[in-house]
Amino acid sequence: MSNNNQKGDLFNQPVPDSILTEAKKLREKINDADYKYYVLAQPDIDDYEYDMLMKRLIELEKEYPSIITDDSPTQRVSGQVIDKFNSVSHSVPMLSLSNSYNFEELIDFDKRVRGFLKDAEIDTKNLEYVCELKFDGVAVSLVYENGVFIRGATRGDGFTGDDVTNNLKTIKAIPLSVTNSKIKNFEVRGEVFIKKKDFERINSEQELSGEKTFANPRNTAAGTLKLKDSKIVARRPLDFFSYYLRTNDIPLENHYNNLLLLKELKFPVNNYFKKVNNIEQVKEYCDEIENIRDTLPYEIDGVVVKVNSLKQQELIGNTSKSPRWAIAYKFKAKQKTTKIKDIKLQVGRTGTITPVAELEPVFLSGSKISRATLHNFDEIKRKDIRIGDTVVIEKGGDVIPKVVKVLKEFRPSNSKEFQFPEKCPVCGSNLEKPENEVNFYCVNYFCPAQVQGRIEHFVMRDAMDIRGLGENIIETLISKGFIKDITDIYRLSEYKEELINIERFGEKSVNNILSSIEKSKEKPYEKVLFAIGIRYIGERTANIIANNFPNIELLSSATEEKIDSIYEIGPKIAKSIVEFFRDEKGKKLIEGLKKAGLKFELEKKTIKENPFFKNKTFVITGTLNNYTRKQAEEIIESFGGKTSNSVSKNTDYLIVGDDPGSKLNKAKSLGVKILSEEEFISLLKQ
Predict the structure, then answer these.
(1) Using N-to-C axis directions, what is the helix angle for 471-479 and 448-459, rounded to 10°?
(2) Which listed residue (24, 62, 111, 134) is catalytic?
(3) Is it true that 448-522 and 525-596 share their CATH fold?
(4) Which terminus in the chain has less CB density within 10 A, N or C?
């Protein structure tokens, strides 16, 4: 008898009632133990008893495979490794929150909310807010049907996210099923995060195994959720808090009661949520939480304030990006004092020299900080930063560490001003400082640091999107001589056997890299133009240039004056482009990429007929309700129009959304015609 027949027999064999009953009780006991351990932090059985329950359930499901259910605790760790994540459309957009940084901005928020309600003829005497912690994690959506968790997705762009169901199932704080007579079909949203102590343990393990440590808990949680093997995810200590409920099974009245209902459904809800009656009480809550911030076992970066009544939320409404009925109050960046041990110079892909402070390690905002940017030599001189100085550092926007100030009272008596070297720290070539610039540059195009940087830029997602060529792998390929510059990427297939034999590569990973390299040849001309890394050419600038010089021959022969005459392209960019094509290395790079089969000609776009938009320039300000700014710009361009980020005498129309900025005043002063979003939509229908 074949194995397939044996499996078929196992699935078709009758299951005794006693086995069904035992399996059901085991699932209930294990789920209850998970809830008490991971959500309530009040375990009522020891590890051995828990393991014995799980072992018995696995035995029963192995003997009777037909009794396995999607919500069985044994299904938390999938053995399946996926190739890619499927996209999931959110039924209700997962909008991001607008931010406030001081109490005055919270008062303005309160005034706006009350204004919207008064316009809707709603009495604001009974206005309530709910305050919650703003977790520094990853927002996800969980969908339940008939009480069973069927799909989980990341926020993505707010409208579409990645299906990470299997990875979310590994988080034991998330129930795989819910038993409740009132509600069976619903959506829960919340935050996936990693506790501080768990993050420290992960990094300690990384250090012991000689692996690269992680930057902070949030990035680690986000990266873990995007791993393609759920078994690896299950080994990471991901946690979860829920803060949103949506259902049509029962009427929902307010956010505060929804949080209580989530608790009743056995979802983890953070206990620091609070209902308040006015904006002064919101302020008191924010101050209270900021004072205890460092004592919490997880990272937070602020407070979320929401209108409590769901009916009022609906009346107040949303912009295309964020709800008008909620706001985030961001805490001030955390600061720590430490010492500068040394100042090192980093070399970027265009030769830019960036000074970096090597610090005595200090724990700040969820991660161990041992380096901080010093930006440029002028910044070092302005702040008088020296080796040996005691300094105050903070994370700019809670992300990039920087030196805020020097505590000169602690400066050593023998300290000396930092002298910027004349030679590149990597290749020893001369450094140059162009007139009217703050940066020094390494002039050697083949400096190993520049080569590494150019390749990293070329393969990144927004450029050629070559998967598998990460920083460490690129470094290995350069050190072994397989890659000396960008064009060599397209000759890597010649070294396939040698690559397979490199430690930690293997046949499968090499095949994936080579396949991704081949696929990158389909990228359009404007992406290639951005990827080759001409100085000052960002993604948007590459699009503008490609539209004005639809093939590389026209661009390479263009004069500075002709390039400079293009709207939004200045003399600095024009000079950089001309110098790139004048240099033999630039010419050689383009020829090599042409031979590799990359596209250097603009694909003709189908322009829809709408004479109103054709050859006119549009600028958008404020927030549109029906489109994101990028969507609106794409629509305008599809009708033959042009878009710009800034208002000038060349602007034909300014499209105005909610909360417009200074562009509106400038447009009025220049006599630029103004379009409301409703007028814009009406014109699209013509």
Answers:
(1) 130
(2) 134
(3) yes
(4) N
> For residues 55 and 443, what is the distance between their CA atoms, to the nearest angstrom?
65
Please answer whether residues 673 and 649 qualify as being in contact, where contact means their C-beta atoms are separated by less than 8 angstroms: no
Residue for token pair 């021959």: 553
Which superfamily, per CATH, for 525-596?
Answer: 5' to 3' exonuclease, C-terminal subdomain (1.10.150.20)
CATH of 448-522, picked from 3.40.640.10, 2.30.30.40, 3.40.50.740, 1.10.150.20, is 1.10.150.20
Contacting residues for 664 by C-beta, under 8 A, at least 6 apart: 621, 622, 654, 656, 674
Q: Sign of the C-alpha dihedral, residues 420, 425, 431, 433? A: negative
Sheet holding 617-621, edge to edge: 642-644, 617-621, 653-656, 673-676
Contact of 175 with 165, CB cutoff 8 Å: no
What is the percent of the chain with per-residue pLDDT over 90, rounded to a whole number? 49
Q: In the structure encoding, which two tokens stand for residue 86, read together?
A: 């499927």
Domain residue ranges of the chain, discontinuous segments joined by +: 3-75, 99-284+293-330, 335-417, 448-522, 525-596, 617-684
Residue labelled with tokens 């690129």 = 474
Give dist(CA 21, CA 29) in Å, integer.
12
| Alpha helices, DSSP H, located in 347-495 | 377-383, 448-459, 471-479
- Cα–Cα dist 569/447, whole Å: 29
With residue 28 as reference, give the H or E element that holds it: helix 17-34
534, two tokens? 């001409």
Is the Cβ–Cβ distance between 164 and 140 less than 8 Å? yes
Residue with tokens 């949080």: 259
Q: Cα separation of 271 and 263, whole Å?
A: 10
| pTM listed for this prediction | 0.61
Give domain 335-417's CATH architecture: Beta Barrel (2.40)
Fold classification of 99-284+293-330 (topology level): D-amino Acid Aminotransferase; Chain A, domain 1 (3.30.470)
Query: Is residue 275 flagged as an active site residue?
Result: no
pLDDT, tens only, 664-678 = 888 888 999 999 888
The model's pLDDT over 3-47, given as tens digits with 9 standing for 90+, comes to 444 444 555 667 788 888 888 888 888 878 877 766 666 777 776
How many residues does the structure list for the chain? 686
